[in-house]
Specification:
The chain has helices at residues 4-8, 30-63, 71-89, and strands spanning 11-14, 23-26. The chain is mainly alpha-helical. A two-stranded antiparallel ribbon has the order 1-2. A hairpin with an 8-residue loop joins strand 1 and strand 2.
Length: 92
Amino acid sequence: MPNEGAAMRTRKPVGQGGMRERVEIPVGSVADEALGWTEQHALDLGESALDAMLHRAVRKALEDASPAIPAGRVFEDLWLFHAERLNAAGRA
């Protein structure tokens, strides 16, 4: 029997969007590879969108004419913010 190993492979359930239907796609099949490519493509698009957002934020910050905030004050504010969150969660 050709490709006996494929028959022994496990199957994984795959859903699509909001559909509740699930189909069984053999692991290693062409459809499985296509889903892998699609997932990677979606991740790449997400990464590109994040990069664009970060570039806009950095550009906006560099163009901002307001005075700089000293690093010591920024870190002090971060420590206070973190301490308040821990207190609110009852972990301080």
